[in-house]
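Residues determine shape. Next comes a sample protein:
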Amino acid sequence: VALDLRPPHHLCSRPTSWRNNMFCWWCRDSGSNEPKSEGKKGQDPKDCLAEVAVALPSLPEDKTPLKGTSLQGTPAGEAPQKEQRKGSHQHSDHKGHHHHQRKGSKQSGSGEGRKGSKDYQEQTEEEKRQLDQVQTLLKHADSAFHKNNWDTAIAQYTEVLHLQPANVSALAGRGGVYLRKGNTLAAIQDLDKALSQDPHHLFALRDRAEARLTSGDVKGAIADYDTKLALAPADGKALCGRGQARVKIGDREGAITDFKFATRLSYPGANELLKSVA
């Protein structure tokens, strides 16, 4: 006897947007609440399988309501999953084998978990030790920098970069030291790396501007000074540097403005630079 397994239209779980574009066995393509009398010709019955399972939960499992599929979507010709599980434990030796295998797997997994936890703890402790070492090295390097002890500062910054090659503070610090030692090429290389990671690093911006100005890249220097002064306008050194760069490109009025501002900030040498262009 043929079974009409189409459930009432209100049980269709497809979204309205889907029904508006495709035919369902019991829903109009327009999203109407009226059930459709016939399904779309050639429609794959599996498209509506989920709704059938929801609408007819009390159907016996051995019924095959849709050709080629069972109620749970098991392809015809295949044994139901429940029977397969039952058959897999018919022999006692297989059952024992699976039992011991699962038990052994559980114990092995537990051991691996403890080992993984221990490795993670050791890794975390190692990272903490490295972080402490980096902070100590940076502190010594900055101290040497402020004392104009350039060689010691370079050594300390370089050691930090061996541990953390992308450390922005170490790159900016070593670049600043190279600049003050007159090695503008090495300075620009370090400062470029620092600014690629932190484009708003104030000291790196000002030092690279000075290095560019010294190496003849006047436009690049002005660009760096502009960025630096937009972030921190009250910087006498940057104002004087940009003023000198403006003098080189013939921007006398711009240079005077920068030198006057630096003079009001009482930056050493700003007044002399102002007099030289006034």
Q: What stands out?
A: The chain has twelve helices and no strands. Residues 6-108 have pLDDT under 50 and may be disordered. The radius of gyration is 38 Å. Residues 92-146 form the longest helix (55 residues).
